[in-house]
Amino acid sequence: MATAAEWLEGARPRTLPTAIAPVVAGTAIAIADGGARWELATLCLVVALGLVVGVNFANDYSDGIRGSDGEDRVGPLRLVGSGVAEPSHVEAAAFACFGVSAVAGLIITIMTGHWWFIIVGLACILAAWFYTGGSHPYGYAGLGETFVFIFFGLVAVGGTVYVQADHVGTAGWVTACVIGAMACAVLVANNLRDIDGDRVSGKHTVATKLGHQGTRILYLVLVALACVGVIVVAALSTWWVLLGLLMVILLVSPVKALATKATGMALVPVLKNTGLAELLCAVGFLVGAMLDRPL
After folding, report:
1. pTM reported for the whole predicted model
2. Membrane-spanning regions, if any (predicted)?
3. How many CB atoms lie within 10 A of CB 123?
C-alpha cells in the first residue's frame, strides 16, 4: 500500500504550474478585454488541475505496465514502476481525476450554454489518456510537445478566455502560444532528463530524436519565443503585461544548467524552475491586466 506521501509524489506536484498558468493567463486576457467571471475562472482551474493530475497518474500507470519505468529511472517516484501501488489503483485515481474535470466542465457548459464544450472536454480527456495509454500512445511517437502546446496552450488559455469573454482575440491567442511554449519547455526538460532511459525502453520522444544537444537548443528556443510573445501580448493589450517578463528571473538557473550540459537528477530543478517561470509569467499577465483595469 502506497502512503499518502507517495501518492502525493506520484501526483507530481511540480507539474501543477502547467495547470494553473493557463487559467491565470487566460483570466488576465479576459480582464483586459472587459472583465473576468471569477466563478467560471475557478471552474476552469478545477478542470485544469484534474486533467494534469489525471494525466500524471495515467502516465504512471501506462508506463509502469509497459516497463518503461525501470529501477534505473531518473526522477520522482513512479507508483506502478516502483511497485508501491497496484496498477489498477493508479488507473482508478487517473479516471477519478478525469471525472472531477468532467463534472467541472459540465457545470461550465451549463452556465455558459456552449454545449460544444463537451466535445472539447472529451478531446482533452482522450488526449490525456492516450499520451502514454493505448496500443499506440502518441507520447511514444514524438508528438508529446505538439499535444502539450495544443491542449495546455491553445485549448487551456483560449478556453479560459472564451468562457469568460465569449471570444478570444489576437492577444488571447498569442498568450496561448506563450503559455504553450513554456509548457512545452517543461516537457522538453523532462524528456531531456529521461533521454537515456527512454532510448533503452523504446520510448521515442522529441529528445531521443534530437539528442542531448538538439534538445537543449529546443528548450532555449521555446523560452526565447515565450519571452518575445510576452512583448507582443503587451503591444496588443496593455504594456503592464510586460510584468510577465519577470519569469526571466527564474529562467536564469535552468538556462545555465542546460548551457553547462547538466544531466540526470541535475535537471530536476530545471523542470521545477521552468514550471514556476511559466506560472510567474501568467501571474505577471494577471497583475498587469488588473493594474490597467482596476476592479
Report:
1. 0.91
2. 40-58, 92-110, 116-134, 146-165, 171-189, 217-234, 240-258, 270-291
3. 13
Q: Does 295 fall in a domain?
A: no
In the chain, the number of structural domains is: 1
Q: Running DSSP on this structure, what letter comes out for residue 155?
A: I
pLDDT at 74 over 70: no
More confident residue, 2 or 123: 123
Residues 197-208, mean pLDDT to the nearest whole number: 83
**Cβ contact 164:40 at 8 Å:** yes
CATH value at residue 177: 1.10.600
Q: Count of alpha carbons within 13 Å of 98, Cβ hemisphere only?
A: 21
Q: Backbone phi, then psi, for 194, in 5-degree steps? A: -95, 5
CB distance 152 to 18 below 8 Å:
yes
Nearest to 290 by CA among 4, 41, 2, 13: 41
Buried b / exposed e over 162-189, threshold 16 CB at 10 Å, is bbbbeebbebbbbbbbbbbbbbbbbbbb
The shares of helix, strand and coil residues in the chain, as percent rounded to the nearest 5, are 80, 0, 20
How far is CA 163 from its chain centroid?
20
Mean pLDDT of 84-96: 93
- Cell matching residue 23: 487559467
What is the domain extent for residue 247?
2-289
SS3 for 193-262, per residue?
A: HCHHHHHHHCCECHHHHHHHHHHHHHHHHHHHHHHHHHHHHHHHCCHHHHHHHHHHHHHHHHHHHHHCCC
Cβ neighbours, 10 Å, residue 100: 17
Tell whether the model's pLDDT for residue 200 goes beyond 90. Answer: no
Angle formed at CA 28 by CA 242 and CA 21, multiple of 5 degrees:
85
Q: Residue 192: inside a domain, yes or no?
A: yes
Find out whether 186 and 193 touch, Cβ atoms under 8 Å: no
pLDDT attached to residue 73 = 55
